[in-house]
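LAB NOTEBOOK - FOLDING QUEUE
OPERATOR: T.R.
BATCH SIZE: 2
PURPOSE: Compare the predicted C-alpha cell outputs for two unrelated chains run back to back under identical settings.
PRIORITY: normal
REVIEWER: second-year student, initials M.K.

ITEM 1
FIELD SEQUENCE / FIELD STRUCTURE:
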Amino acid sequence: MGTRWSRSESTLLLLPEGQRRGGDKDPDNDSLDGHDRREDIAEFPYVEFTGKDSITCPTCQGTGRIPSDQVNELVALIPYNDQRLQPQRTKLYVGLSVVLCLLVSSFVAFFLFPRPVVVVDGGIRTVTVRFDDVNLNVLMNMTSTLNISNPNFFSVLVQSVSCQVLYMKTVIGTQQLNNVTTILPLSESQVNYTVSVEIGSSAPYVYAFCTMPSIKVHNIVILMQTSVKTSYMVRTSQNSLEAFRYIDCGSNTTYHQTL
C-alpha cells in the first residue's frame, strides 16, 4: 500500500495512501466500504516523525498514547498565558466567602454566647408559727420566693437552691433543693422554697418575746443567705444572695406581693 507524507504544524505522520488530500481514492480500494477503511486505519501503526522545530514524545514510546501505569506519575504542563490559570472574579468570590464566614460567626456568637442567669430575691411570702411550750422553742416555716430569668437562647437547668437562716449569727434553719426546674429560653420562672426554723435553745428569751400578749407585733430580724446553682451549655454558674428580713414570730403571717 502506498504512503504519503503529511505535515501538521511541526509533526509528520505516516498516513494510508487512501487518505489523500482532496479526497482522491485509489482505484484498487474502491471496493472497500467505510467499515473496512476504519479497520485498516486502526491496524496501521502510529509513527512519529520529528521535524526541526519539534521533539519526540519520550513517554509515548511511538504509540501516541500514555501507558496506563504512568498516569499518576506524569505531569501536564499548561502555558502561563492559558485562560484556565486566570479565573474570573477571584477577588469577588474570596470577599463574599469572608463576609459570609463573618456573618455566620456573628450569628453563632450572638445566639450561643452564654449570658449570666439573673436571680432576684422575691422575699418571704408566708410564715407559719408554732410554739413548743415544753422546751420553750419557737418553730417557724418560712416560704420564700426567687425570680430567675434566663436571657439566653437555650434552656437553663436550675440544679440546686440552698438557703441558710441565721439569727444573731447563729444558724437556726437550712434547706436544700436539687434539680429544681428548667427555664426555657428568654423566659422567667418563679421558685418557692420553705425553710424550717427553730429558735429556743440558743436564745431562750425569744420564746418569751414572741408569746408576750402585751405586744401586738413581735418582729425579729433574721439573715437569709441563699445560693442558686445553674447549668447550661456545659457551663455551671452560681448566684449568691444575702438579705435581712423582719418577721413576726408571734402569729401566722402572709405577705401580699405585687407580681
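ITEM 2
FIELD SEQUENCE / FIELD STRUCTURE:
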Amino acid sequence: MKFRKLLFLLLVMSLWGGTMMFADSAAQKVRVIVNGSELDDAGMFMDGKSFITVRQIANTLQALVVWDEGSKKVTVYKPNVHMFLFQQDNTIFGNVVKGNRITFKVFAQIDNLLTSGTAVKVSIFDPSGTEKVIQSENKSIDKDNFWYRTEDLAYSFDAAGKYTIRFFMKMTGDDEWKLLSEKTITAKSS
C-alpha cells in the first residue's frame, strides 16, 4: 500500500515537473528597455513574439489608457505636451547653479488631446524624488488643445542634480493622476 502511494506521488510529481518545464520553455520572461530604462515588470516571449502590458507602454510613453468594459476595448491617447520654464523677467531657462533661488512659472501647451479630463497638476521633483506641487487645479478639459500657465513659484535648488518638472492630468471618471510630460532642470555646482 505504501509502495502504491509512493509510486502515485512520484508519477504526479513527474507530470507536474514536466508541465512546469514545458510552460517555462513556451513562455520566457524578457527584459524590456525603453530609452535606456528597464521596465519594472518583465515582458514575455512566446511563439516568436514579445508581449508586454498596455499599461507599461502607456506609462513609459506618458500616454493615457482608457478601458471600455462594455466593448472590451483599450484605447491609448498620447497628447503632445510642451513645457517652457520662464523666470520672472520672462527669460527661458533649463539649468541652474546649485544653491540659487529662482522665481519661475511653467507654461504648458497641450494639443492632440483626444479624451476629456477633470484636473491638471504641475509638480517639481528634487534629486531625491521629493515632490513639491507647483499648482493643481480642477479644470474641465473637453477640447483637443489648451494652454496652461502656473503662478510664479520661488524655489531653491539646494542640491546638485536633476530636478524634474512633471505635468499630470486626471481623466474623466478616474481619480488617479496620469503623467503626460516632464522636463529636466540640472542644478550644477558653480
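REVIEWER COMMENT (ITEM 2): The mean pLDDT is 86.
FOLLOW-UP: none requested
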